[in-house]
Amino acid sequence: MKNFLAKHRxxxxxxxxxxxxxAVVMFASALSxxxxxxxAQMMGQRPQPVTAVAVEEADMDVYLKALGTVIPLNTVTVRxxxxxxxxxxxxxxxxxxEKDDVLAQIDPRPFQVQVMQAEGQLAKDEExxxxxxxxxxxxxxxxxxxxxxxxxxxxxxxxxxQYKSVIQADKGQVASAKLQLSxxxxxxxxxxxxxxxxxxxxxxxxxxESGGIAVITQLQPITVVFSVPQDNLPAILKRFRSVDxxxxxxxxxxxxxxxxKGKLMAIDNLIDTSTGTVKLKAGFKNEHNQLFPNxxxxxxxxxxxxxxxxxxxxxAVQRGSIGTFVYVVGKDQIVNVRPVKLGPVQGDRIAVAExxxxxxxxxxxxxxxxxxxxxVFIMTRDxxxxxxxxxxxxxxxxxx
Length: 400
What we know:
Radius of gyration: 44 Å
Oligomer: single chain
Strand content: 35-45%
Helix content: 25-40%
Number of strands: 23
Mean pLDDT: 86
Shape: elongated
Low-confidence stretches: 382-400
Number of helices: 4
Order of helices and strands: HEEEEEEHHEEEEEHEEEEEEEEEEEE
């Protein structure tokens, strides 16, 4: 009996301890909730520090973004036009060369010999022609004296014409030999940057080789090919036909650093059915060689300009269950929630299609603590601060 009473006493104590613990937790939770409500009420009554900017009216450029690939205007594989031993390379790998610069030299001696042989044959045939012409003149004198037959004069005239034809062919042989000699000096067909050498001096090269001596890529000017969705094509075509220049800006892969500025050159004549995009080509002077062949760049194509648009900072945009909205600072520094319809974005500015008017103040920072009807005071950072010290925060009255 005693054991039974002891067990029930212990069970009663455990239940009592649990009930006390639950009561303590519920009391602490209620107290914490009450304090939070009091703090929220105090926060609602106390003006919240925020920063705000005025909505502006300004012209705003509308850009279309795309990913592009840098494509050189010309890429040439320099190949020998005659065969022989390569005796010298006059360029350094990666060097920039100008058109008609000498790049390499093939052993010219075999071609010099061919020139000498062709010139010797030409001189021989010229002497034969000269002798035939002298004979023809003598025959004509004898014919006038009726001392020889007409057939002899006719035959001699034909011989003179034959020698003249032979000399014409000899001159062609001389010109051909000189041309082959000139081909022994390999020159740059375009201006550009030379790649890595493809053959070393001492090797025998020929015109039938596909590898060539080196590859020259033109860097100035240069182009970028990029694709845009077909839905944007009508606006691009309209702008392309109506203006002389459609500006194009090339950025690095991070989209922050401007590499070059150019203009739209051409629009492809068909849409890629597999992707629903159309290719565009932009040209750049590339004066500082910021663009490099096969480089990936971010492209911004200006397709329109919104005149007198309502513009504000992108940091003022809030998103919630009602969609996109902003906190507008009104009379007596009371904010109200204003749904807005947004337009194109340019950097840290965004166009507002509906919901705001120029001159209204919108909250840019501190909006996470606000709600409809909150009271605020606008903070500004003093531009005249000591070096290394934070700026002084000052209150700025809201614009009505």
